């Protein structure tokens, strides 16, 4: 389960940002997890409270936005969801594609209460 390392790294990034910018409290962290990123959103959500326990992020809410894994068929230019179509173009059946989205794990926003 590599998600624990990813969650720890995310928390370190947020805490470093908060310290560098004199932010004393973070209310929410919004993360984008791509369907094709090999990071399982449910595991991130499950691990988060344990990772932040006893830190400055202990009462921070984690919001996860799943980004669809979209691709363009190299043969017919159809744009399709890779997961829903098991990697095959629904138009021509080709497996040749260029991934357009869904590979990343990003910290999209850090919400700071006023």
Short description:
With 114 residues, the protein is α+β, with helices and mostly antiparallel strands.
Show the helix and strand layout.
Layout: H1 3-20, E1 28-34, H2 41-52, E2 61-67, E3 70-73, E4 79-81, E5 97-101, E6 105-111
Parallel strand pairs: 1-2
Antiparallel strand pairs: 1-6, 3-4, 3-5
Describe this structure in words.
With 114 residues, the chain is α+β, with helices and mostly antiparallel strands. It has a domain at 3-68 and 101-111: hypothetical protein PF0899 fold (2-Layer Sandwich). It is 26% helix and 29% strand. The chain has two helices and six strands, in the order αβαβββββ. Strands 2-1-6 form a three-stranded mixed beta sheet, with helices on one face. The chain is elongated. It starts with a helix and ends with a strand.
Strand order of the largest sheet: 2-1-6
Computed over alpha carbons, the radius of gyration is 17 Å
The biggest sheet, with number of strands, parallel, antiparallel or mixed sense and barrel status, is: 3 strands, mixed
Order of helices and strands: HEHEEEEE
Mean pLDDT across the residues is 95
Give the CATH topology of one domain: hypothetical protein PF0899 fold
Number of strands: 6
Tell me the overall shape.
elongated
Which CATH class of one domain?
A: Alpha Beta
Strand content: 25-35%
Number of helices: 2
Low-confidence stretches: none
N-to-C span = 36 Å
- The CATH architecture classification of one domain is 2-Layer Sandwich
What class do helices, strands and sheet pairing give? alpha+beta
